[in-house]
Amino acid sequence: MNVQTILFTALSSLGANKMRAGLTLLGVVIGVAAVITLMSIGKGVQQSITQRIESLGTNLLFVRPGDANQGGFSRGQGSATTLTMADAFALKDDVFTPSVAAVAPEISTTAQVVAGRNNTNTRIYGVTPEYLAARNFDLSSGEFITPGHVRENSQVVVLGSEVAETLFGFRNPVGQKVRLNSRQFKVIGVLESKGGGNRFFSLDDQALVPITTAYYRLSSQRTAQGGINVQTINVQLHDVDDVDKAIREVATVLRLRHRITREDDFSITSQQETIEALQETTNTFVVFLGAIAGISLLVGGIGIMNIMLVSVTERTREIGIRKAMGAKRRDILLQFVSEATLLSLGGGGVGVTLGFVLSILLNGRSLLGTPTQTVFSPEVAVLALVVSAAIGLFFGIYPAMRAARLHPIEALRYE
Q1: Is 154 in contact with 129 (CB distance < 8 Å)?
Q2: Which pTM was predicted?
Q3: What is the number of domains present in the chain?
Q4: In a shared domain, residues 42 and 157
Q5: Are residues 184 and 143 in the same domain?
Q6: Contacts of 115 (CB under 8 A, 6+ apart)
Q7: Pick from 110, 83, 125: nearest CA to 228
Q8: Are 177 and 32 found together in one domain?
Q9: 122 and 230: one domain?
Q10: What is residue 402's DSSP assignment?
Q11: Rounded CA separation 101/234 (Å)
């Protein structure tokens, strides 16, 4: 039998039981569509997080207290009190750190922000005027924190767009009063939105106050020398290609200031390292989603084997007649394998189409109160189609071999 005859026979056999073939096909369709849809959602989340971090600029270094990795174990990065405002000022030196363009120290805490009857819990960052440019933020209204605000410990606040909307709705919050941990602050500005709609990672759910205000008004920790501890020093570079050079310059300055002879009491990471670490984490998340959806595809394959075994039993006399008329074992084997493969390929094709449509429909839609971004991947679609065909082939081999091994006389006597 040639390929054309085998395919024609397989299609005729499947057409004879349209309802059964359609239900079997449905299992593969659901499996492939689930794989593509969930992978699209996972990749959308990954891309959304990466874009938000990149929007802050890729030419950034983050200096934090504590050793990030010592002997393979983390020492609680950021929990020590080894960095101060004086360290931050020392890093902006044209002689010792020529690669550094700007330095923006920060400290952070959480607080309840209250405006009238509205309130929200958010992250409060104590920053300096350089923070706006160093972290690539823009103002949508009002003004940013000035050196005068820092010197005078002014109780002023710049709200993230999400916080401003929660507290004031569509009203302009600039000039209004809010309370942070029972202290009254004046709103002087609102940050431009960074697209922080994801509840797990939002750049718009924050509020900025002068670093001295955060330290003296909202926090009670002090250094032994009476200086200001900082949790992070954001270092902006002139050129993103000078990352390694800048890390060496910053590390040298801090080692000299801290009189370090052995292990560093600080850690330096780049924005790119942060992005790569998050991508590794989200890759695991995407693979996990794909694996969950793949289970339904496996169930669809088991359904194909079940139906093919039923088909072999029902068509025993037909197999006996074919063998009696000269059909070889190979012909019978190819016939049933081709039927199983056509079922899985047909289901895979419909599943890819359905997955693509669902990915488009879900893009931008709100799921559990969070806007969902999806990214359809042609590579995933092709892989799902190939896997569905392979599953049909794999689960169709046993029924096909069982049919091919039937003895023609026994098959003809089967009732």
Answers
A1: no
A2: 0.60
A3: 2
A4: no
A5: yes
A6: 167, 168, 173, 176, 177, 178, 179
A7: 83
A8: no
A9: yes
A10: H
A11: 11
CB of 311 within 8 A of CB of 351? no
Burial bucket for residue 290 (CB in 10 Å: 0-12, 13-18, 19+): buried
What backbone torsions phi and psi does residue 192 show, to the nearest 5 degrees? -65, 140
Q: CB neighbours (10 Å) of residue 93?
A: 13
| Pair 101, 70: CB distance under 8 Å | no
Measured torsion, CA atoms of residues 184, 185, 187, 192, in degrees rounded to the nearest 10: -120
- The pLDDT tens digits along the chain (415 residues) read 566 666 666 667 666 677 777 777 888 888 888 888 888 888 887 777 777 666 666 678 899 987 544 333 334 444 446 788 889 999 988 889 999 888 999 999 888 999 989 999 999 999 999 999 888 888 999 999 999 999 999 999 999 999 999 999 889 999 999 999 889 999 999 999 876 555 455 778 999 999 999 988 887 555 555 568 899 999 988 887 788 898 999 999 999 988 887 888 888 888 777 777 777 777 777 777 777 777 877 788 788 887 777 777 777 777 777 777 777 777 777 777 787 788 888 888 888 899 889 888 888 776 655 667 788 888 888 888 888 888 777 777 777 777 777 766 665 665 5
Nearest to 101 by CA among 230, 240, 291: 240
- Sign of the dihedral through C-alpha 154, 160, 161, 166: negative
98 and 33 in a common domain: no
Expressed as residue numbers, the domain containing 133 is 81-264
SS3 for 224-272, per residue?
CCCCCECCEEEEEECCHHHHHHHHHHHHHHHHHHHCCCCCCCEEEEEHH
Residue 238 per-residue DSSP state: S
Residue owning tokens 């390292």 = 273
Query: For residues 267, 78, 143 and 371, what is the CA-based torsion angle, rounded to 10 degrees?
Result: 100
- The two tokens of residue 334 are 């190819």
Q: What is the pLDDT of residues 196-217, one digit of tens each?
A: 555 455 778 999 999 999 988 8
- The answer as to whether 67 is a domain residue is no
**Final residue in a domain of this structure, among 229, 264, 299:** 264
Residue 64 domain flag: no
| C-alpha distances out from residue 53 to 42, 100, 276, 315, 338, Å | 17, 20, 11, 61, 49
Q: Tell whether 251 is covered by a domain.
A: yes
**Is 307 within the bounds of a domain?**
yes
Look at residues 264, 290, 315 and tell me which one is the last residue of a structural domain.
Answer: 264
CA–CA separation, 321 and 210 (whole Å): 90
